[in-house]
Design brief:
It is a single chain. The protein has three helices and four strands. It is of the alpha+beta class. The protein has one domain. Helix 1 links the parallel strand 2 and strand 3. It is globular and about 30 Å long. It starts with a strand and ends with a helix. The chain binds zinc ion (ZN). The site of zinc ion has 6 residues, from loops.
């Protein structure tokens, strides 16, 4: 994750192909580097509880979303981040 100088704007979800989805910016053969999904979960949980938005990077566009919406980008048919966060509908 990347925290901006103001401590608020953070890149939490990086959907660019070939990079770790946690937003650390490192190359990843799979969706996450080892342990980074857990790191992201801890971060998203804290942001959610604090009511802070997080940034999702899609292509070259950074967009801020409430955590409850950002996790939808992480959902796969096998793994529901929305359910993990408790915001699945
Ligand atoms: Zn990572």
């Amino acid at each position: 994750m990347i925290t901006a100088a103001n401590g608020k704007a953070v890149l939490a979800v990086d959907l660019r192909p070939g990079l770790c989805t946690c937003g650390c910016g490192s190359p990843a053969a799979r969706r996450f580097n080892q342990g980074h999904d857990q790191r992201l979960k801890g971060f998203l949980r804290r942001a959610h509880e604090a009511g802070e938005p997080v940034e999702v990077l899609i292509g070259k566009t950074r967009t801020r979303f409430p955590v409850a919406e950002a996790v939808a980008f992480l959902d796969t048919p096998d793994v529901s981040w929305s359910k993990w966060l408790g915001v699945d509908r």
